[in-house]
Automatic annotation (TrEMBL):
<feature type="compositionally biased region" description="Low complexity">
    <location>
        <begin position="199"/>
        <end position="216"/>
    </location>
</feature>
<dbReference type="InterPro" id="IPR010410">
    <property type="entry name" value="DUF1005"/>
</dbReference>
<feature type="region of interest" description="Disordered">
    <location>
        <begin position="194"/>
        <end position="216"/>
    </location>
</feature>
<dbReference type="Pfam" id="PF06219">
    <property type="entry name" value="DUF1005"/>
</dbReference>
<protein>
    <recommendedName>
        <fullName>Formin-like protein 18</fullName>
    </recommendedName>
</protein>
């Protein structure tokens, strides 16, 4: 089935230029900047500034990006038509550090970029430049802003669980109103003595599966002090295992508390098949922050390497849930939205054609660039059916997509794994020795 169409509006190359007579310190400094689009969360960034006499060295890095699925873009256009106004991207600039003659949060001016919504709807397979170059900053300022705003297609495969991860659900590929089954998931408990999955293990399953009898139960006190041995195996329609997520470090409460702490997180290995063994592909760690949010870190494990590379390190609300996302900015640096939940209409950044530069994550740059994946995560006590989006460029076979599906399942299950130990888990998440 074909991938779903998505559109990205990418903003990059932002820089401020002042006339030579401006009282600007000789060393370049930075200004604060807010990027706004009606109906989407505002994004914040910092941009360099210099006087006109100096050679303009414009950083080609990406500063912001707004993402729309086809249905979201249609709704966006409809709302704009109802208002009877053209949609515009607005970039607000605020005074930077002391020495510029502006207060630290004083509004310097704004730049408005009109959007051609018809062109966005019919973007096709090639992107186009919306605006590029130097423009005057309004509000009486003599400064100019350099910017490069581009629309680009960003097709993604979309997968939906038809039930909670612990209920061994089917997974469908979705495109509009069409659903097609592609995977099945099997939730099980690994034997407590089985440690092979910490590195490599046989593809044969050694545990006993559990069935799903119900959804949510009331919270009760329990004396259970660890949650361990959970695993979920993803199979293709022929029944062959194509990915797995295995809890390899138990989730245990920190000393003197009933929560999993950041200093001692639980962890999962995300595994892929190879040479008749499970090979580690990634590691997900999760814990409970003091403010009640779920903290998490996901690392890619290069084949044959000892050092893992972090792709995302953030938090998400345990009460409301939300979305996690992996989006690689400028081909090397991972980025998540300020509130740590990935929003399709805000907070993500792409490595597009603005001139990526290699960095410390050069290995990740070669394999992961731009939008990688996002997945919904349900809050505590809520029935969760994860929806997973994966960038087309990161899927070349079923195992590629299945690995991200397994990661989404592990992330969703981590909400329960990090639940307060004064609360009892749902029946399908408890082993017999915990009854």
């Amino acid at each position: 089935m074909d991938p779903c169409p998505f559109v990205r509006i990418v903003i990059g190359g932002l820089a401020l230029k002042f006339p030579s007579e401006s009282k600007i310190p000789p060393n370049s400094s930075t200004f604060d900047c807010k990027i706004k689009l009606r109906g989407c969360s505002a994004q914040s960034t910092t941009i360099p500034a210099f006087v006109q006499e100096r050679e303009a060295i414009v950083d080609n890095r990406i500063h912001g990006c707004f993402n729309f699925s086809k249905s979201e873009l249609v709704k966006f256009v409809e709302k704009s038509n109802v208002r009877g106004k053209s949609s515009c991207l607005k970039i607000e600039i605020y005074g930077g550090k002391v020495g510029f003659g502006y207060g630290s949060k004083r509004h310097l001016g704004s730049v408005v970029v009109p959007l051609d919504l018809k062109s966005l709807e019919n973007i096709g397979h090639r992107g186009f430049v919306i605006q590029n170059g130097w423009v005057s900053v309004g509000g009486g300022s003599t400064a100019q802003l350099n910017l490069n705003v581009r629309a680009e297609p960003d097709p993604r495969f979309v997968f939906q669980f038809d039930g909670e991860a612990e209920c061994s659900p089917q997974v469908f590929q979705v495109n509009g109103n069409v659903k097609q089954p592609v995977f099945t998931c099997k939730f099980s408990f690994r034997n407590s003595g089985d440690r092979n999955l910490r590195s490599r293990s046989s593809l044969s399953e050694t545990s006993t599966s559990t069935s799903c009898f119900g959804s949510c139960t009331s919270d009760e006190e329990t004396s259970v002090k660890e949650r361990k041995g959970w695993s979920i195996t993803v199979h293709d329609l022929s029944g062959s295992p194509v990915a797995a997520a295995s809890m390899v470090t138990p989730f245990v409460p920190s000393q003197g508390s009933d929560r999993v702490s950041k200093s001692n997180p639980g962890s999962w290995l995300i595994l892929r098949p190879g040479d008749n063994t499970w090979k580690p592909w990634g590691r997900l760690e999760a814990w409970r922050e003091r403010n009640g949010e779920l903290g998490y870190r996901f690392e890619i494990i290069p084949d044959g390497a000892t050092d893992a590379i972090t792709l995302v390190n953030s938090t998400i609300s345990t009460k409301k849930g939300g979305k996690i996302g992996i989006d690689i900015i400028n081909g090397a640096t991972p980025l998540t939205s300020p509130n740590s939940s990935f929003d399709l209409s805000s907070g993500s950044v792409s490595g597009s054609e603005f001139g990526s530069q290699p960095g410390s994550g050069s290995w990740a740059q070669l394999l992961y660039r731009g939008f990688v994946m996002s997945a919904t995560v349900g809050g505590e006590g809520k029935c969760s059916k994860p929806e997973v989006e994966v960038g087309v460029q990161h899927v070349s076979c079923a195992e590629d997509a299945a690995a991200f599906v397994a990661l989404a399942a592990a992330m969703d299950l981590s909400i329960d794994a990090c639940r307060s130990f004064s609360q009892k888990l749902r029946k399908e998440l408890r082993q017999q020795d915990q009854e």
